[in-house]
Each structure stands twice: as C-alpha cells, then as structure tokens.
Amino acid sequence: MSTIKNHIQLIGNVGIDPTITNLESGKKVARLSLATNENYKDSRGEKQTETNWHTIVAWGKVAEIIEKYVTKGKEIGISGKLKTRTYETERGITRYVTEVEANEILLLGSK
Predict the structure, then answer these.
(1) Continuous H helices in 1-111
(2) d(CA 31, CA 56)
(3) Count helices and strands in the chain by DSSP H and E runs
(4) Cβ distance 99 to 56 under 8 Å?
C-alpha cells in the first residue's frame, strides 16, 4: 500500500511548449503546463467541460523525453507525486506552489 501514497496520474494536453533548463550540475529539468478536462451534464442536461491546469516538473531522463517529443497541444500521460514549495515575493509575501513532479511520461495521440 505504501506505493499509492502521494501518487498522481494525469492525462491531458500540453498548454505551452515545455521550458527546458540545463543546470550547472549537468541535470536537466523540464517545466510545462498540462490541461485536464472533466465533462459533465449540468442541471439542464447540457454537456459542460471543466478544465484544470497543472504545473508539471520533470528531471533527468523524463525531462530529456519531454525535450525531444513534447510540444504544445500534445496529449500525454503523467505519473508522479505532488510537491509543494514556498518562495517569498519582492514585497516579502510568502507564496505556496503545488506542482506535479513527474517520474513517468506516456506519449499519447498522433505523431
């Protein structure tokens, strides 16, 4: 059961071309936004779509795959875990950011 703790799987479409950063340590990191859609019928029976946006961060081999194959609009599947980090703005306000740290990627859709 310990393998399902803090585990997330998403399938969606990439919102913008990924940003790839090569760190001084030689590691590569990829950042992208992923849109997931949920369809439902409202009280009048009309189909509605709710879109949620997720920030995805990937390191190492997964980042290399993203750099090579993933572009805006591409449908992908991501498996990973949620990570929350904090930072301070120029005005001294603490902000919290929750991201999905991807450890696996599945390339979906057409080429």
Answers:
(1) 60-69
(2) 6
(3) 1, 6
(4) yes
